[in-house]
Automatic annotation (TrEMBL):
<dbReference type="InterPro" id="IPR044516">
    <property type="entry name" value="UXS-like"/>
</dbReference>
<dbReference type="GO" id="GO:0032580">
    <property type="term" value="C:Golgi cisterna membrane"/>
</dbReference>
<keyword id="KW-0812">Transmembrane</keyword>
<dbReference type="Pfam" id="PF16363">
    <property type="entry name" value="GDP_Man_Dehyd"/>
</dbReference>
<dbReference type="GO" id="GO:0033320">
    <property type="term" value="P:UDP-D-xylose biosynthetic process"/>
</dbReference>
<dbReference type="GO" id="GO:0048040">
    <property type="term" value="F:UDP-glucuronate decarboxylase activity"/>
</dbReference>
<protein>
    <recommendedName>
        <fullName>UDP-glucuronate decarboxylase</fullName>
        <ecNumber>4.1.1.35</ecNumber>
    </recommendedName>
</protein>
<feature type="domain" description="NAD(P)-binding">
    <location>
        <begin position="123"/>
        <end position="415"/>
    </location>
</feature>
<keyword id="KW-0472">Membrane</keyword>
<keyword id="KW-0520">NAD</keyword>
<keyword id="KW-0333">Golgi apparatus</keyword>
<keyword id="KW-1133">Transmembrane helix</keyword>
<keyword id="KW-0210">Decarboxylase</keyword>
<dbReference type="InterPro" id="IPR036291">
    <property type="entry name" value="NAD(P)-bd_dom_sf"/>
</dbReference>
<dbReference type="InterPro" id="IPR016040">
    <property type="entry name" value="NAD(P)-bd_dom"/>
</dbReference>
<keyword id="KW-0456">Lyase</keyword>
<comment type="function">
    <text>Catalyzes the NAD-dependent decarboxylation of UDP-glucuronic acid to UDP-xylose. Necessary for the biosynthesis of the core tetrasaccharide in glycosaminoglycan biosynthesis.</text>
</comment>
């Protein structure tokens, strides 16, 4: 059978003259992105990256750029100074930094892997009795310390063991004159504290308190440093309140032989608070009660140093009046701890820093007899003018807000002081070296 070719021209399909692409589907870009993320677990890696970044910025927060003062790049020579040194502006530490990086606050903790950055600190009167012990603690903590002292009552021997330490500088300077430095904190301890010394030139004593504004405006206000004033229990005068609280305004004779010191310290507290309220200066105020320990001036007229020196020299212990006046005595290491906690804390004060253990002068003489010479005699003399009859601190505020209270009793602290006095009076270097080690601890 033959094949048949059939041609149907009329049935052929019409061809289109133009090309038409596939229509665009809605949400195509969104679906492509989702498909891309879902393939090969890419979405999981995105979430892991976000979690890592969040953890890094939480543990290591970014810090603002350090503040550079306009006076930072220069070298200053302080009048009457014994050293030239460059002034390098430090970043001003915030309160959180002060509390969190190795401060005296016992609740402070250094974050793991981070090292505390030392502060730059001025201690006026740093070559004196209390000041030199404070310098020891600050240097041991890793701070850079500048001691400013005119050596009226201070002694270079008190800080000589720091000579050669790059974190220590010593300037001979009177704080009534302006002082240009770049620092983070100022401990102001420069003042003759014993009656023998502040009565030597009473006019200069009270003027030094009035010119305290030079120190506050020249340092604390200009560079934003925190300023701690060491006031005294003498602001309470011959108190009518017992024990004395910080809210007590005192009973001071404004024209007495001790008023150059009593009223001078009250004036210093006034100036300090006025600069805080009017100029925004960060301040702290400590009211120090009777303190004793190694490095006290041997013949400064204060009762503990008098009794100890007299007993060592086999002289009678001189008791003024009937010996029933009371005082409280704190060891110097307790005071230093309180000052550092106050500086690092967030409370202005004033705070009483003293040992509430109360002794009459006769009881103190008996403790000195037990410690040094049981055969020491007691000699009574007429009482001095404006001598307070009672003195005992109420330290409940310091306990509550600073977590501070004294630890060293009179019977434990007195032998350390006796060893230091023996070394300085008789040159017993062996006992003196033991004393230095004990006081450092």
């Amino acid at each position: 059978m033959g094949s048949e070719l059939i041609y149907r021209g009329s049935e052929t399909q019409p061809s289109s003259d133009s090309y038409s692409p596939k229509p665009v589907k809605p949400w195509a870009s969104v679906t492509r992105t989702i498909h891309y993320l879902l393939r090969e677990q890419r979405l999981l890696f995105v979430f892991v990256g976000i979690a890592i970044a969040t953890l890094i910025f939480t543990v290591f927060p970014t810090s603002p750029a350090p503040y550079v003062a306009p006076h930072s790049r220069f070298t200053t020579l302080i009048p009457d100074s014994i050293t030239y040194f460059p002034i390098e502006t430090q970043q001003k530490f915030s309160s959180a930094h002060r509390l969190g990086f190795g401060s005296a606050n016992p609740t402070s903790k250094i974050p793991l892997g981070l090292k505390r950055k030392g502060l730059r600190i001025v201690v006026t009167g740093g070559a004196g009795f209390v000041g030199s012990h404070l310098v020891d603690r600050l240097i041991a903590r890793g701070d850079s310390v500048i001691v400013v002292d005119n050596f009226f009552t201070g002694r270079k021997q008190n800080v000589m063991h720091h000579f050669g330490n790059p974190n220590f500088e010593l300037i001979r300077h009177d704080v009534v004159e302006p002082l240009l430095l770049e620092v983070d904190q100022i401990y102001h301890l420069a003042c003759p504290a014993s009656p023998v010394h502040y009565k030597f030139n009473p006019v200069k004593t009270i003027i030094s308190f009035i010119l305290l504004q030079n120190l506050i405006t020249g340092l604390a206000k200009r560079v934003g440093a925190r300023f701690l004033l060491t006031s005294t229990s003498e602001v309470y005068g011959d108190p009518l309140q017992h024990p004395q609280k910080e809210t007590y305004w005192g009973n001071v004779n404004p024209i007495g032989v001790r008023s150059c010191y009593d009223e001078g310290k009250r004036t210093a507290e006034t100036l300090t608070m006025d600069y805080h309220r009017g100029a925004g200066v960060e301040v702290r105020i400590a009211r120090i009660f009777n303190t004793y320990g190694p490095r006290m001036c041997i013949d400064d007229g204060r009762v503990v140093s008098n009794f100890v020196a007299q007993a060592i020299r086999k002289e009678p212990l001189t008791v003024y009046g009937d010996g029933k006046q009371t005082r409280s005595f704190q060891y110097v290491s307790d005071l230093v701890e309180g000052l550092m906690r106050l500086m690092e804390g967030e409370h202005i004060g004033p705070f009483n820093l003293g040992n509430p253990g109360e002794f009459t002068m006769l009881e103190l003489a008996e403790v000195v007899q037990e410690t040094i010479d049981p055969n020491a005699k007691i000699e009574f003399r007429p009482n001095t003018e404006d001598d307070p009859h009672k003195r005992k601190p109420d330290i409940s505020r310091a306990k509550e807000l600073l977590g501070w209270e004294p630890k060293v009793s009179l019977r434990k602290g007195l032998p350390l002081m006796v060893s230091d006095f023996r070394q300085r009076i008789f040159g017993d270097h062996k006992e003196g070296s033991n004393t230095n080690n004990a006081s450092s601890s």
